[in-house]
Amino acid sequence: MAGWSERLYGLGGPLNLPASIFAGATALQFASYFIGNHSITYVRQDGVEKQVGFHWATNWSFLFMLFLPLFVIFASHLVSFWRTHGRAALLPDADRASAVEAWLRNVARSNPTFWAVLLICLGFAGGVQWIGARLLPLSAGMEDGPIDWASVALVRPDVVTVPEAVVFSGLAYFYMAVCFYVMFAGLILLYILADDYWDVAKGQDATAPVREDIARVILKGLYRCTAAGLLVAICMTVQNRYLPSDALDVWAWLFGDMLAVRWGSNPIPSDGYGFVMHYTSLLVALPTCAVMIYGIVRVAIPAGVADLSLRMAAALALIAAGYLLTGAFRGFSLLLGLAVLLCLYGLFDPTYGSNGGRAKSEGRRV
């Protein structure tokens, strides 16, 4: 499983994997249109109308059609760079073939980890979660939590039937489980890459200039992956926080909070806030941040590129705050908007305008 996952990221075409993820998400969007839950509203018992269509769910639209493919693109590029060029450049006395073999041996040591992640994603995140959150409540006709694109069949059977919701949600959860395995496999590979860099680079004093250049390439790639991964987590927590609110749709909820700050009006109320509001999104955000922090420790500090790592760490702290405080107070949308802007900017320029070290590395090629 480790070797297959590494080949998936390191050897495939740059668009094969992200295009497959995008195609699966597109197929689900079309399927939701055919069964009728793509854009559907219902009226709660308190008279509030809610938009719970599948197309409106940020954790099924933006997540799988944009941010997860971006994560895979950046992770594939970084793994491919390290596999084919970066590792060999740090070992001037070794040929490229031996460098690749050593890298593959390091990946193979983590084979049990890949199998464990596959079991958790398919067995628990996919199967158990679907049975507990979708199959059983829909079969019993019980509303388990806020109504969304699947459970809306219980209150709008004239549009979506329960059997349709069961089948569609099963396909969606299987797709989600496969996609999250791909994402976590990428995070494992990035962790192995950072650790492998540290093992190879230590003691290679003769290649110190090249080592610094490669460290910068790795850090930029890690940060791009982290920014994309946190955007995935933000999509999940935004949708989860919107559902119990009194807003018609997720955009009305966000803009209503902004207006509450600007004009002093009351924000659109939502249920009580809790840090562990969405456990699944935390399972995405925490490993993503952990890999970046590990990369700073293993790559940035030994290579002496503190100027780069400090900016990244500061931006990461602001983004994490925006994610964790979603829905916590009036005006949270401003902090969340700043976090999203930092993520998007970081995808294009992970250094946030830092020019440190460029003069020293000018003229060198990695």
TrEMBL record:
<feature type="transmembrane region" description="Helical">
    <location>
        <begin position="113"/>
        <end position="132"/>
    </location>
</feature>
<keyword id="KW-1133">Transmembrane helix</keyword>
<feature type="transmembrane region" description="Helical">
    <location>
        <begin position="331"/>
        <end position="348"/>
    </location>
</feature>
<feature type="transmembrane region" description="Helical">
    <location>
        <begin position="172"/>
        <end position="194"/>
    </location>
</feature>
<protein>
    <recommendedName>
        <fullName>Transmembrane protein</fullName>
    </recommendedName>
</protein>
<feature type="transmembrane region" description="Helical">
    <location>
        <begin position="276"/>
        <end position="296"/>
    </location>
</feature>
<feature type="transmembrane region" description="Helical">
    <location>
        <begin position="308"/>
        <end position="325"/>
    </location>
</feature>
<keyword id="KW-0472">Membrane</keyword>
<keyword id="KW-0812">Transmembrane</keyword>
<dbReference type="InterPro" id="IPR058114">
    <property type="entry name" value="RcgA-like"/>
</dbReference>
<feature type="transmembrane region" description="Helical">
    <location>
        <begin position="221"/>
        <end position="239"/>
    </location>
</feature>
<feature type="transmembrane region" description="Helical">
    <location>
        <begin position="60"/>
        <end position="82"/>
    </location>
</feature>
<feature type="transmembrane region" description="Helical">
    <location>
        <begin position="21"/>
        <end position="40"/>
    </location>
</feature>
